[in-house]
Amino acid sequence: MKILILTAFALLFGLSASAQFERFAPIVSVENPALRTERLPVPDLSSIGQRILAIDETLPARLQHALDSLYAKTTQFGKHGVAAAIIVPGQPIWTGAVGESHPGVPLTSHHLFEIASNTKTFTTAFIMQLAEEGKLSLGDSLWKWVPRFANIDSTITIRQLLDHSSGIYDYLNDDPLLQIISRAYFYEPEKVWTPTEILSLYIGAPNFKQGTSYRYSNTNFLLLGMIAEKAAGADFASEVRRRFFTPLGLTSTFVGWKDSIVGEFAHNWFDTAQNVPMVDLADIQKTGQLSMADAAGGNVSIPRDLALWVKALYESNLLTDSTKAQMIKLKTWPDGTRYGLGTIRVPFGSRSFYGHTGGLLGFYSNMFNNPIDSVSFVLYMNSGSFEGDISINDYALALLREIYKPAASVAGGSSQMQVSVSPNPVSKRAEITYSLPSADHVRLSIYDLFGQEVAVLANGLSNAGEHTASLDASAFTAGAYTYRLSTSTGVQTGKVIVTR
User: How far apart are CA 338 and CA 238, in angstroms?
Assistant: First the structure.
């Protein structure tokens, strides 16, 4: 059975990030191939949120129905569980799930899962904060921070690690013998791997000269984790907790190879061949697989936490606007691949979502944010699936269609009320102006980044015509906030940017 699983794994492990991205983009939107060599425009992050997104009270039920409907179409041996979290401005975080963790136990959005290459976004943010603090530069060469290793050019820069232009051999996907993978999952699952051990023993010849091409390599982020620790003068896990987990309230997110993990994992299933029952891998000790992945893919979380994380990463003041602009500025390589700094872009119509994908044996996930509309989504499946079955990308597309469904097509949907905020961005006070076609009960509220109501500007019956409410933002911390205007005909939302 081990040999059979490893044979199939050799075909699927490459989907951990780059290949999932290549599959995701065409499913979400077919772009003009002629545009692939052009530099994609970078949104102006200093004025994000000017677009208004209409939402409605039926959205939670429609999102769950979308999951249920697709799950009903899966084949007998493609059955799996899917869990998701969605953040839409002005609404509480939505979480939902369908399917099973294991027979008789439904999968829930509270089940932990291995987030795999989504870990790279935490590593990237750590590195970028260190750069902002002046503790390192993206132009620094490896020799400044880590020892020399065979087959790794010490003049490769931190930036080339972040954008996968280093050419370094990928100790996971480039190894035809799957040495570490087989040991970590099946022969020594209790072993604790160290980056130095992996870099000393399992790195083959480079794929190309640094800076000349693109090739996704987990080794890049193994090195970035080492660099971050050296520059910060502290352990990776303690710093990530201090910088990100604790401030953002990510209480169910763990550095999987370091932390004591609290919570119940979903069972992870793997299909060794088409039309045969999947194998349950939940009994395999996770020490080996998580330490093997390290800063390239070893974190553990739940959908809600990751939705908060990806929103904070691209919208909040965790990083400066100029840093975020660097991350989402995608370099286009001759083969059409586009990758930023630890960031993948997927299109949905004219909209751009930024984030990452992840995959370890039996866990596959997508984590993306649209900083213009302030919409975030996270999904994971607790099994793989063969081509032709329902994929994680199909679920993502179904959920996005519900989020962006025109208001006129939704029963009880919002009318397009005219709303303006001036000035926006605001430092102290702003005026929010809106017009009503007829007398109505109005509630105008302000929500923070995490969907908490922080101010109520209007709540009561208002006559038809134009109205103005004053927003005192002097006590607000800098960052992105959402206004929510509710009437009997629907809801209107938009972004307010507070600066200092």
Answer: 32
Query: Which structural domain range is residue 367 located in?
Result: 2-407
Query: 436-442, long-range: CB within 8 Å, 24+ apart, which pairs?
Result: 436/462, 436/463, 436/464, 436/465, 436/467, 436/487, 437/464, 438/464, 439/463, 439/464, 440/487, 440/488, 440/489, 441/487, 441/488, 442/467, 442/485, 442/486, 442/487
- Residue 286 tokens read as 């996770």
Residue type, 359: G
Residue type (1 letter), 144: K
**Domain shared by 374 and 434, yes or no:** no
In single-letter form, the type of residue at position 496 comes to V
What mean pLDDT is reported for the chain?
A: 84
The structure's pTM equals: 0.78
Q: Phi and psi for 104 in degrees, rounded to 5?
A: 85, -5
Is 100 in a helix, a strand, or coil?
strand
Rounded Cα gap, residues 102 and 362, in angstroms = 13
Let me know if residue 414 belongs to a domain: no
Amino acid at 343: T
Average pLDDT on 298-314 reads 97
Determine contact, residues 151/247, Cβ cutoff 8 Å: no
Cα–Cα distances in Å, from 230 out to 117, 146, 245, 418? 22, 8, 20, 52
Do residues 288 and 427 both lie within one domain?
A: no
